[in-house]
Protein: Ribulose-phosphate 3-epimerase
Amino acid sequence: MPQAIISPSILSSDFAQLAVESQRMINEGADWLHIEASQDPGKLIDEIREHGMKVGVAVKPKTPIDVIFPLGHMIDMCLVMTVEPGFGGQKFMTECMPKVKALRERFPELNIEVDGGLSLDTIDEASKAGANVIVAGTSIFKASNPNEVIKTFRNKVTAEQVKYSKLD
Ligand SMILES: O=C(CO)[C@H](O)[C@H](O)COP(=O)(O)O
Structure:
């Protein structure tokens, strides 16, 4: 099944607006939604599932990871932002790695995505912390051999993930 990963900048905590935005993306064919700003994440997760979609929750660097713990068993993926959302080319925030580690320890089967500053210099740290979905812009698009970079990312993630019960 094709998987569109859409990370909308929905800054409003207005549930009605979230519902409209979500519906619009469903109509466009998305089967993943990432939503960070919601007053009632449990309700939103249920609604997304009712539409047959998978659910991802994103946390910005300053958001403590324990807000995700009660949702961990209800979601398919957690995106741990490793830069402030906004634009590519920023520096990877090492200080976000304990959040990835804490999540992985509690949820061995959860897809944990990291986004921002991922490169050949930072993939070891991210994969060892437990991330298994890597979003990378600069390090791929500026590489002389993008395929090699992608292959290295995959190999490193795979090598670390065998420690856990499932790879997705
Ligand atoms: O858009 C972003 C943040 O909002 C991402 O960080 C971006 O997609 C990844 O880019 P890079 O690998 O250059 O950090």
